[in-house]
Amino acid sequence: MSYENIIVRSENNVAIINLNRPKSLNALNAAMVAELGKAFDEIAADPQVKAVVITGEKNFAAGADITDMVELNPEEAFAFAFSPVFNRIANCPKPVIAAIEGFALGGAMELALCCDIRIAAAGAKMGFPEINLGIFPGAGGTQRLPRLIGPSKAKKLIFTGSIVKGEEALSLGLVDILAENPSEEATKLAGELAGKASVALKLAKECINVSADVDLNTGIAYEATEWARLFATADQKEGMRAFIEKRKASFVGK
After folding, report:
1. Which of 43, 57, 81, 133 has the highest Cβ tally under 10 A?
2. Which domain holds residue 188?
3. Pairing relation of β-strands 96-100 and 51-56?
């Protein structure tokens, strides 16, 4: 499928999505987010894709496009919200890695929070400046950020609208890895994950996501059920036999 606001390519079982509105620093608008939703629907259904990277040329994205929002009324703003697509990205059955350079502000940082792993350049500028526009993060930011870095740190970032760079973002837990070339590092890591047992990755991700919404005992019970399901997969048999036979496993995703 062809897109106007993103570029999607695949290499070595990794889908690479480039945000592509360079004249607006890749600012997210409704059309771009709709295309992201369609791309992730295709990726989720494609057995050849084992991992995903989201990135942008020079900039990840400079937030949501304010020109599209300024005159919205509450009903229109609710319809404009990116949450339904961002939720689909967060629940993608494959590992998703954000490669952050330049700006990742507001809605763009919320997009990065939907990813499983975030890799950033030391000079990347990240944050949630919405408070300075008379709003607050409305595409999952007030929910995902506290779960990631803790409520008080999340409040400080959101209440002040502070912009942080790589080292501080790493110390906060906002990003996981700093790299000179985030896209290259993310593609390398995605390639490594593409070689793992994809069913086990999918179920592990589901268990981790569920843990944010349930008590510990419920989460452990859910984990036990999903773990046991893996013993009906060809990959479990292959992985354990390869270990016993002292050879590299060759997973087939089944």
Report:
1. 43
2. 6-194
3. parallel
User: What strands lie across the sheet with 103-105, from one edge to the other?
Assistant: 103-105, 125-127, 163-164
Beta strands in the chain (DSSP E): 6-11, 14-19, 51-56, 96-100, 103-105, 117-120, 125-127, 163-164, 177-178
Q: Are residues 226 and 173 in the same domain?
A: no
Q: Please check whether residue 82 is in contact with residue 25, taking contact to mean a CB–CB distance below 8 angstroms.
A: no
The CATH number of whichever domain residue 64 belongs to comes to 3.90.226.10
Cβ-contact 118, 112 below 8 angstroms: yes
Contacts of residue 83, defined as CB under 8 A and 6 or more positions apart, other chains included, come to 138, 139, 140
Structure-block tokens of residue 158: 């959101």
Interval 225-243: pLDDT, tens: 999 999 999 999 999 999 9
Rg (CA), the chain: 19
Condensed to tens digits (0 to 9), the pLDDT of residues 42-68 reads 999 999 999 999 999 889 999 888 888
Q: How many domains does the chain have?
A: 2
Same domain, 41 and 160: yes
The tokens describing 27, both together, are 């600012």
Q: What is the pLDDT of residue 139?
A: 95
Q: What is the CATH number of the domain that holds 208?
A: 1.10.12.10
Mapping DSSP to helix (H, G, I), strand (E, B) and coil, where does residue 164 land? strand
**Nearest alpha-carbon partner for 137 in 190, 90, 81, 73:** 81
pLDDT tens-place string over residues 172-206: 999 999 999 999 999 999 999 999 999 999 999 99
